[in-house]
Amino acid sequence: MLIYLRILKESLFFAINALRNNKLRTFLSLLGVTIGIFSIIAILAAVDSLEKEIKGSLSSLDTSTIIIMRFSFAPSDIPQWKREQFPDVSYDEYQHLKRTLPNTVATTYTLNVKPEPITYGGKQVQGVEIGAVTSDYYFIEALQLEEGRFFNEAESNSGAPVTVLGNEVAENLFGTPEAAIGKKVRLYGRRFSVIGVLEKEGNSMFGPSKDGSAFIPVNVTRRIYGDNNKQTFPQIILKPESDVDNAAYIAQVEQNLRLYRGLKPDQVNTFFVNQLKGFTDFIDNITGQMNLFGLIISGFSLLVGGFGIANIMFVSVKERTNLIGIQKSLGAKNKFILLQFLFEAVILSIIGGLVGIFLVWIITLVASQFTGDFQFVLSFTNIIIGISVSGLIGLISGIIPAISASRLDPVEAIRTGM
Fold this sequence. Notes:
Elements: H1 2-21, H2 23-57, E1 66-69, H3 80-83, H4 91-100, E2 104-112, E3 116-120, E4 123-133, H5 137-140, E5 145-148, H6 153-158, E6 162-165, H7 167-174, H8 177-180, E7 184-187, E8 190-198, E9 213-217, H9 218-225, E10 235-240, H10 246-261, E11 272-275, H11 276-319, H12 321-329, H13 334-369, H14 380-406, H15 410-417
Parallel strand pairs: 4-9, 6-8
Antiparallel strand pairs: 1-10, 1-11, 2-4, 2-10, 3-4, 5-8, 6-9, 7-8
Helix pairs in contact: 1-2, 1-13, 2-11, 2-13, 2-14, 4-10, 11-13, 11-14, 12-15, 13-14
């Protein structure tokens, strides 16, 4: 054990000596490793941060949640021209599923409508995202209220003029969420009573934040837009019970809706049953491909860095030929010389890798200051990956120079070095 510690100590000394005595050569050689590790860790950190932000934005929704609409979350085998002919899901279909579908915790019908201004007194908030939903949306999204309540089923069915405001909208109109309750705001040229205010959510990169939203009964917007407006993108959202088999439940949903639409056995579904778990799996697939693509590109930088380390080691072997001959004449075994140069190559490579990781860390700190709530994260796992890869590059790059050094004849080595 002591011999290996001695070899490591001497190798560290030689590596530092190489850095000190040949600064420019060493800098240029290590630059490839630094850039390669920087590229790999920067890509991994960026993709991890993106994935964390997206999944954090979806965290309020159960991944078993099912969304029925005429669009698919994932690529489909059905030709686009045929998909464009699919009808929108209807309010009647929503009511039918709500009445007949078992093992369901909540069912809601939503319309995606364009943002609208909301006015109170002399104040106005522009571009408020309108959530046109039924009452069960509260349970599906697990909304958190700071003040008041969400509208109930009776208010939803009748299309009552009530609204639940996002935190930011309430603050801009009334100063505080508490002051909003019971007030009447103007929306769509009508007066709506504010019955609730949501808790502050913060910015989200995956869709608009609920802080800038207002939720109203969907039947209000149905009267305004009509049931055949292709710009509203209706959806039926289902939340199955936790112990239900997802595949069986989806099959039951499809069969139920097929029967309601009168589709024949040989006809394809004229709707898509999308599950959020499938969407998160799709995100995982995309981020995995991004990581792979980035790693391939970064691999070229590491290849250059590997050649740089190999160049340093070949020069180091040549400069220390005389010393190698003396060591071998005094009894140093081939293994000792081999490990000495291998350790030196690994240490040099790790130094380059640590510089690359340090640069990524600095950039993540700076970038996070300019991206608001989106935070770039350099995980401990990525740091370990960076150090491991740089060490592996040093090991691979140094193996041939180390073998050539260990095989030198002591007499010839001493004579060559004189």
